[in-house]
């Protein structure tokens, strides 16, 4: 069923909820409707797709775990050197581990087996292999979630509320 992007009073994205909870927040006057999908739950009450809280709430920053799955996801499941998408993806240390390259968002990218072998123990520059995107840490776990929906073809209207998707 339809999901709803919840914005803080400051318009920063806060979380994703289901439309029923969003409707409750609207009815209780705790949030206002920003976007809706044109479908109606009750007469004159369209299903929201973006709502905004009336009062600002503070949220602690949540770390995104550095896992293989999350790195593949950040990189759109594609080799960051040749663009290959498929099953045979590996993780490559941009600065090789043998040369004290760190395990970090900035130093690990998705690479296909071929590129990983070709690059070997070299930096991209030494191997003359250009990275398609400079690897970086994702903004937030919510960012990650929102990108999943937007890139998956649903909730395009969320895009303008989230930077960098
Ligand atoms: Zn490749």
TrEMBL record:
Q: What Gene3D superfamilies does this protein map onto?
A: 1.10.30.50
Per UniProt, the keywords (alphabetical) are:
Endonuclease, Hydrolase, Nuclease
Domain spans labelled HNH nuclease: 66-117
Q: Which SMART domains match?
A: HNHc (SM00507)
Name a GO molecular-function annotation. Answer: endonuclease activity
Q: Which residues form a coiled coil?
A: none
- Superkingdom field: Bacteria
Which InterPro entries does the protein's record reference?
HNH, HNH_nuc, NA-targeting_endonuclease
Q: Report the transmembrane regions from the record.
A: none
Q: Would you tell me the protein name for this molecule?
A: HNH endonuclease
